[in-house]
Amino acid sequence: MKLLRRRTFASMKKRLAHLYGHDRTDELADRLYMLIGRYGLQPQGGERGTSEIPYWDEKDVVLITYGDMVSNQGEATLSTLKKFCDLRLFGAINTIHILPFYPYSSDGGFSVIDYRAVDSNLGTWSDISKLGQTYDLMYDLVLNHCSVESSWFTQYRNRVYPYADYFIEEGPNDERLKYVTRPRPWPLLTAMETAKGEKHVWTTFSDDQVDLNFKSPDVLFEFLDILLRYIDSGARIIRLDAVAFLWKELGTNCVHLHETHEVVKLMREVLQTVAPQAILLTETNVPHEENISYFGEGDEAHMVYNFALPPLLLHALLKGDTKYLQAWARELPLLPEGCTFFNFTASHDGIGVRAMDGLVPDEELDWVIERVKEREGLVSYRAMPDGTQKPYELNITYRDALSDKQNKAQGVRRFLCSQAIMLGLRGIPGVYFQSIIGARNWQEGPETESGEKRDINRQRWDWDALNDTLDNSDKDQAWIHNLYVSMLRVRATHPAFHPAAAQKIIPTESELFSFIRITTDGERKILCIYNCSDEPQTFAQSVIVEALGESQQYRDILSSAPIEWGDESQIELGPYQYLWAEG
User: Fold this and answer.
1) Catalytic residue at 241?
2) In this structure, which topology does domain 62-148+212-497 adopt according to CATH?
3) What is the spatial distance between Cα 458 and Cα 456, in angstroms, rounded to a whole number?
4) Which residue among 17, 82, 156, 407 is buried most deeply as judged by most CB within 10 Å?
């Protein structure tokens, strides 16, 4: 026990008591101590997340990708992925989020059959290890639900201990179910045959994804073991998928319950004990204030998805009006030490719009939805308590969401401007594979036999065909890819983009968006300036001087070109032009 920090272990015991009652605390604490012992105790010395041993720096950029996004005949796709990253992304990204690479039955990998195995269609644990020798890795911990094809659920159906308590049974006519938040427009409970007859089990996301019962400590310890196995196998970041729904309590909305936050805090403390270099990232596609609650008081998630950014940025660039984006960005909280945002614009799912609640009027969201439909995008809905449906997610590639049918080059510039904004903001960027190669909508995806709306943004690529496209200077995809990678490599060299570097939003006209980033030592600054409209705009020299200080020469670090002033001591920015200015 003396090797474990007494205060940390006392806190973990307190959380176990809160979750499962004081009469079980000693038993569960002993079990936790044994689990931690199997994976090694905390090394002595400084803690990660301090200035002494930082969690992250400006080089941290995460590539979000499936393990089989690129395939090459006769080669494991995980091996092909490494080859692609080595060839095209080295120095641009340092971390790879391999979306669920476990055996699964549906939902693009998020209906997990076996959490401790690698899908043989992708490769082996050895292939994962080889990726980890060059890149840091992010794994998904899909802890709200598992596949009905999992051995856990088979054992549950057969009423085998302890699996008989792994899942949640409810009476289908219980009036209290009406309060439960529904992220999907289908029934909350699904009838399943078991050795003790028909049971109605909780299925938040689909009838193939059965929710796990964290009121059983056996479920918690199952996932603590999986969590530590993932860290032991090379994961640096653990993404807690759909964590907001984890704890169920009839009579509540079953979202963000206090017990859910306690489980996340417990996981952080376990990682701080066993693997202080590890990072917890929560995925909660909910309104902004609810989302950032997962930072706790600096004792919960290290990172939180910045879910408001993708739809706000989309609205600003489509409308040429940044007033809502500016207002939101000005109000972003100063985060506790050891916490930061995970910034992104696109992911394997789509553009979630729940985070816009309270940030823009409903009619503005409706306007964005119509623009997405015009660009052949799709809309996913969630069920409301009154039986109606409300938009939940926009299914479209981010490039096509910002496309311009009358002026293709203008659409490309608008897309690159969106990515430059995301990369400049305080936090760690997450770059989706389809974005970094400038992919268009894959219209055939949702039309396949097992397809779903999200597949419009999940196209798989042949190694030769993709590289031929990205090597062809006449292709828009090649132009986007090369500029994107160049931007990432420049970003990685400047300490003002450290996640802990200060950020200040500069008030501008609504067509513009601008902010300053200041290094943690205060010695260097970058002024990020973006024209978010399809018309030329001007930016005053005096603002640049005030932000960066007097200098003989200001330059754009993206192009290495000096910044030239016009006749009226201002710079002119073309449509969707952006600068990262330094004195």
Assistant:
1) yes
2) TIM Barrel (3.20.20)
3) 6
4) 156
